[in-house]
Amino acid sequence: MTLVQLAAAAGLSQPFLSQLELGRARPSMRSLWRIAEALGTTQQALLAGEPDPVPVDAGGAARLLLHDPEGADVTEFVGAPTEWGEFFTHGRTELLYVVAGRFEVELEGSPVVSLDRCGSISYPGTTPHRFRQVGTTTGIVLVVHGG
């Protein structure tokens, strides 16, 4: 697939993908998801080939800690957007565990859930969901996808 074809399939611009490929741009988690969807894979599979944390939007970074396509994927996010992004959906159950800082999780149609250090929440990935970091402390969250 060419960069132009990938851009069209992912709904992103070819110049952005070129800058991303050259390490001159940081993807949002939404952009990474769109790229994975266009390639017929997952964000976790894209991160699996990277030994170091991948810089993402809002100055954060994502690092895949475990990738087992038949079991669970564990992704660590250090720093996260403080504003709500778009809702995500996918086919796997998701568990979000707060290592440091404070986060809010919103499941479409439900009240926002606040989570502090050691807090967790699990939900079906098919439920539209999103999370954001709250406060000035850099947050660290583990996201586990399974089933």
Short description:
The protein has 147 residues and is an alpha+beta fold. 22% of the residues lie in helices and 34% in strands. Helix 1 packs across helix 3.
Question: What does this protein structure show overall?
Answer:
The protein has 4 helices and 9 strands; from the N terminus they run ααααβββββββββ. It is globular and about 40 Å long. The longest helix is centred in the N-terminal third of the chain and has 11 residues, at 29-39. A 6-stranded antiparallel sheet has the order 1-2-3-9-4-7. The two termini are 30 Å apart. The chain has 2 domains: 1-41, lambda repressor-like DNA-binding domains (434 Repressor (Amino-terminal Domain), Orthogonal Bundle); 54-146, Jelly Rolls (Sandwich). It is α+β, with helices and mostly antiparallel strands.
Strand arrangement within the widest β-sheet reads: 1-2-3-9-4-7
Count helical runs. 4
CATH class division of the largest domain? Mainly Beta
CATH architectural arrangement of the largest domain: Sandwich
Low-confidence segments, given as residue ranges, are: none
Secondary-structure-based class equals alpha+beta
Descriptive tags:
single chain, alpha+beta, 434 Repressor (Amino-terminal Domain), Jelly Rolls, 6-stranded antiparallel β-sheet, 3-stranded antiparallel β-sheet, 9 strands
